[in-house]
């Protein structure tokens, strides 16, 4: 009887799962393994929203495996130690794993390769499980990655995606390997009230609904903040409950401008993965140093706290920051604006904002979060690094009726448009009764400080 282990990481699904498929083809029995590694806890990654979503994903994965005659084996402990002990318990000949791009994933792969190699067990690492196109598959003539999106998009679009593989019909798990029950969402406290259900089943359902009724209008409506017309698939993609290859293929199959615009966004995800794969240190350090002397937590404590709490006095920024806490998610346009406000108007270090987003975002992802923050801060891959978004102009453009602001900032519910985006212009008596803060900073002053800092270089 031959046995293989599949180590699930950011690929918590059964459909379109090349490592599982390869393991099933190679062995009579397979151990589908998930390890709760205390290193992830120590790095502060198991925050409530993602812990709850992860619990849903693991419960759903276990249920899917049980319907196929198997089960998920969950262990707690350092990942290499746990994989090695499972391998020893069932005498596995190989371990299958999806390739990752973060420093943590590289280190895990390196340590596993060494430890398994010493035991004569093969580690098989699979590409195109987390992303649609593997990082490094398309590179420019004179470099190891694309630093500009548009030429990457051109090459990425021409790339042939691998075939989608079906979910397995049956999985036989060796009796001898025991594990813990996957935790339940009910055990996690401090979860945002509007957090969606996690897991492959919920993700596939949402994708099917979105493909039927949202996709075709996406090109026209993606920036309509109040209309909430994006897919909200990001957490499912982050946990790998949905496969990027399958989503891209199915969207392309639907065709039309909506699908084209949606696939372009998915390309951003791959773009950032290939940047981080080539420059792993850019999760913490400036990708492009501009010689910034950012304001720190100590320099700007009051401003940063107001930003985190959604009390800057700029309705669009505050709506965005409150949506983040309420739903564990934020619309992309709102993310751009909130990040621009922190890094440019308040001139605070992008890492402060990125850390706060990672505490709350259910899709919080080292790759997409850190590199989007850098993109906005002007230290990343944006070809216009000095642009500053004005929250009033953005509000009038992307929330013309003020419905997004009213949804998340109850103090402003009674204010008519367009003053809902500039409540400081209301008559004093009316303004005083709102209980809403005055602007934290004059936008012109913020802009001048940012320009002075930039011109210093
Ligand atoms: P849709 O508009 O429906 O797009 C479809 C998918 O494309 C998304 O689910 C996502 O996987 C991908 N995508 C879209 N835009 C981007 C982008 N700019 N970069 C990378 N992938 C993208 N996305 C995350 O998944 N995790 C994060 O931690 C994260 N942090 C961000 C921080 C900032 C400051 C900014 C500006 C953006 C961040 N994004 C992040 C990207 C983007 O905002 C979200 O992916 C998107 O809002 C998710 O909503 P959706 O699924 O409805 O997206």
UniProtKB/TrEMBL annotation:
Domain Photolyase/cryptochrome alpha/beta: 2-131
UniProt cross-references to Pfam families, sorted A to Z: DNA_photolyase, FAD_binding_7
UniProt xrefs under InterPro entries: Crypto/Photolyase_FAD-like_sf (IPR036134), Crypto/Photolyase_N_sf (IPR036155), Cryptochr/Photolyase_FAD-bd (IPR005101), Cryptochrome/DNA_photolyase_1 (IPR002081), DNA_photolyase_1_CS_C (IPR018394), DNA_photolyase_N (IPR006050), Rossmann-like_a/b/a_fold (IPR014729)
Keyword terms, alphabetized: Chromophore, FAD, Flavoprotein
Required cofactor names: FAD
UniProt keyword RNA-binding, yes or no: no
PANTHER family: CRYPTOCHROME, CRYPTOCHROME CIRCADIAN CLOCK 5 ISOFORM X1
Sequence similarity: Belongs to the DNA photolyase family.
Identification of the protein by name: Deoxyribodipyrimidine photo-lyase
Natural source organism: Streptomyces thermospinosisporus
Lineage: Bacteria, Bacillati, Actinomycetota, Actinomycetes, Kitasatosporales
